[in-house]
TrEMBL record:
Protein name: Uncharacterized protein
Pfam entry (one): HAD_2
InterPro entries from the UniProt entry: HAD-like_sf, HAD-SF_hydro_IA, HAD_2, HAD_sf
Organism, as annotated: Vannella robusta
Organism lineage string: Eukaryota, Amoebozoa, Discosea, Flabellinia, Vannellidae
Length: 240
């Protein structure tokens, strides 16, 4: 077990959507869907069909593909993503409106941010200050907008923030964990993977992180409170 290992957790990394932030664009699309199907004499089932198409637009194959591009290819723009989604789901909104709506839907989870802040103020048994970071499968533009939402940059520091579009690879690819280790080595050379604890809301990413040698725990802010996160931290020797 982890407790028998000599290593202590020095770095704690948090996923973006589902852990530190809400996930997008689903909330925006679900809200937007309610404004559809209100014009004309449509049957109830027709209204439902139209709304369903808008609410689940992010699951359409071409939109999924666009999201994959957006989170791994720096040359792929948010504009391109919305053009694909608007066309695939037959939205009335234009790109600028979608950009604004998705930003209005962004939320930073305050309880998780508070816990992260507490971790950054804590020390290991040997008296070393712990450090925190973010590892997120995200578009650089969207991620930047999240940073402006909450006091994220008052808690996290840029050298330990890794966004998939910037590093051109995404979880669960091992390359992204290696990219994080490079950032860690820059601030603390010779850090062992077992000194890193990672929280993510997707099991595949947890499995990959563990295979890579990190400690990792599943956490989803949609259905779990910060107390669950605090218990995980405690289990890994982090007393807050």
């Amino acid at each position: 077990s982890y407790m028998e290992e000599a290593s202590e957790v020095v770095f704690v990394f948090f996923d973006g959507g589902g852990v530190l932030f809400n996930g997008i664009p689903r909330p925006m699309l679900q809200k937007l869907a309610l404004s559809y199907g209100n014009d004309g004499n449509l049957e109830e089932y027709q209204i439902q069909q139209i709304r369903e198409r808008v609410a689940t637009a992010n699951h359409l194959p071409e939109v999924r593909d666009a999201w994959h591009q957006l989170k791994t290819n720096p040359a792929y723009t948010e504009q391109m993503y919305w053009e694909t989604l608007i066309s695939a789901a037959s939205l009335k909104e234009n790109v600028e409106q979608c950009k604004q709506l998705v930003r209005e839907s962004m939320l930073v989870h305050p309880d998780v941010l508070r816990l992260a802040d507490a971790v950054a103020r804590s020390t290991t048994e040997s008296g070393e200050r712990r450090q925190i970071g973010i590892l997120s499968n995200h578009a650089t533009d969207w991620f930047g907008s999240y940073l402006q939402k909450g006091d994220v940059l008052q808690v996290f520091s840029l050298p330990l923030i890794v966004v998939s579009q910037e590093v051109r690879c995404a979880k669960p690819d091992f390359m992204v964990f290696q990219a994080v280790m490079e950032k860690i080595f820059a601030v603390r050379p010779n850090t062992k993977p077992s000194e890193v604890l990672f929280f993510d809301d997707k099991q595949a990413n947890i499995d990959a992180a563990r295979s890579f040698g990190w400690r990792a725990e599943l956490f989803n802010n949609e259905n779990q409170g910060a107390d669950v996160l605090q218990q995980h931290l405690f289990n890994h020797g982090i007393m807050l």
